[in-house]
Design goal:
208 residues, alpha+beta, four-stranded antiparallel β-sheet, 10 strands, globular
């Protein structure tokens, strides 16, 4: 039943805490921008703002992501004037970090990054319980620049996008809005994730 599937998709969320350790210049902020809706769907104006802790070099973000999926992302330092620098992995820092989220059930493998080689500073991910997530939400209420909507699908970059110059983000072209069929597939995938199956989103974009 479509209504039941939507409800299951909304419940199949993993709440994670990302912690990056780096010092930035005075007035700069650190964001996470990526393929998930809660990370801006590669739109920097909707990226998730990390919160700086008192020691000055620990930046954290608590966010919800679909269970059992691979999310691509980069970290972005942004100056007050709007100039942004993208931080990725690989020899030139051009590649996206890949975060595989937990299946959201007891005994499942925890959320983890596939590789951090080439990232100029360390970052780690930690799964949170419902109680921990609620406590974090109360402590950082209003601190994030983008509020995530549970159950939204992963945005995928359009095929054919090439590597960017070092320090910059994903290709300017991204996949168009998902069709109803793809959205339904995403909800079914979230249901499969809650049943204990890892899911990777794949889409096909046709240009006329």
């Amino acid at each position: 039943h479509p209504t039941a599937l939507i409800a299951m998709a909304e419940q199949s969320q993993a709440t994670v805490r990302l912690t990056a350790r780096t010092k930035v210049a005075y007035g700069e902020e650190l964001f996470v921008c990526g393929s998930a809706a809660s990370l801006g769907s590669w739109d920097l104006s909707h990226a998730a703002l990390m919160q700086c802790k008192q020691d000055g070099d620990a930046w954290t973000l608590v966010t919800s992501l679909p269970c059992g999926v691979r999310v691509e992302l980069k970290l972005v330092t942004k100056q007050q004037g709007g100039l942004a620098k993208w931080h990725g992995i690989g020899s030139g820092g051009d590649d996206n970090l890949v975060l595989e989220t937990s299946l959201g059930r007891a005994g499942a493998k925890s959320s983890h990054f596939h590789s951090l080689e080439g990232l100029p500073f360390p970052i780690e991910v930690q799964d949170l319980t419902a109680e921990e997530a609620e406590a974090e939400a109360g402590a950082t209420s209003g601190g994030q620049s983008h509020q995530e909507t549970p159950g939204q699908a992963i945005a995928v970059r359009a095929p054919g996008g090439g590597a960017q110059p070092a320090g910059y983000g994903p290709p300017a072209q991204v996949a168009p809005a998902m069709s109803a069929e793809v959205q339904a597939a995403a909800m079914l995938a979230a249901h499969a994730g809650s049943a204990g199956h890892a899911v990777t989103y794949t889409t096909t974009t046709t240009t006329t």
